[in-house]
Amino acid sequence: MEWSIVVAVIATLGFVLGRQKDEIQAKAELAAVKYTLGSLRTALILDYMQRTVRAGNGAPTSARQNPFDLLERKPANFQGEVSAAQASRALAGSWVFDPACPCVGYRPHYSPGFNSASGDDMAWFKLAGAPGPLELTARESYVWQGTALR
Question: Domain-by-domain residue ranges, the chain?
Answer without folding.
Answer: 2-149
